[in-house]
């Protein structure tokens, strides 16, 4: 056995790697003045002329609301409408204390314990007298419209409802606890064949 340790690896620059551990050759670093499309798009913080990004519009409900319910004007909401895809007016949509039990009674793939836990979490946030979840009136209107379309009218399928709920959680703060529970219940509903 020889007494000399193995040679340490060398950097692309002169010296040992310990001296230049984070250095890259200049060809690997795009310069801000480079005219390549990759570096200009990476370094640019402006949009092209005429292009706009409207994230709220893409994630907002599909229909406009024409009235107020629960003391909330539609203009008070950060988005328009009371729920995606629903065709009922605010007066025709059933209240949450009717819609939620209807959702709970649909056939589900969840275990009884998990179903009960999700139901309790949702009720504490959305139903008056069960708890204070800090849910705003526009948020109640939105979930009411979604559930009406999913449970009563059948105009919203499970996949669309899930996508709408996920978009809702992204744009609203403080709703993840109960909204993710609604999403999980909606996903677990067993679709019944019309045959």
TrEMBL record:
Bias type Polar residues, positions: 47-76
Biased composition annotated in UniProt, kind: Low complexity: 30-46
Region named Disordered: 1-93
Protein name as it appears in the record: Uncharacterized protein
Species assigned in the record: Drechslerella stenobrocha 248
Lineage, top ranks: Eukaryota, Fungi, Dikarya, Ascomycota, Pezizomycotina
């Amino acid at each position: 056995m020889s007494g000399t340790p193995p040679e340490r690896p060398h950097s692309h620059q002169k010296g040992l790697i310990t001296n230049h551990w984070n250095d890259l050759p200049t060809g690997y670093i795009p310069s801000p003045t480079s005219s390549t499309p990759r570096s200009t798009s990476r370094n640019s913080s402006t949009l092209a002329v005429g292009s706009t990004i409207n994230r709220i519009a893409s994630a907002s409900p599909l229909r406009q609301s024409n009235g107020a319910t629960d003391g909330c004007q539609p203009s008070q909401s950060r988005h328009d409408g009371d729920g995606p895809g629903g065709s009922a007016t605010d007066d025709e949509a059933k209240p949450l204390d009717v819609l939620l039990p209807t959702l709970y009674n649909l056939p589900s793939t969840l275990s009884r314990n998990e179903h009960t836990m999700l139901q309790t979490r949702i009720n504490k946030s959305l139903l008056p007298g069960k708890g204070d979840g800090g849910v705003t009136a526009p948020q109640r209107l939105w979930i009411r419209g979604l559930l009406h379309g999913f449970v009563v009218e059948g105009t919203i399928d499970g996949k669309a409802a899930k996508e709408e709920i996920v978009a809702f959680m992204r744009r609203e703060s403080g709703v993840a606890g109960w909204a993710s529970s609604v999403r999980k219940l909606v996903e677990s509903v067993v679709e019944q064949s019309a045959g």
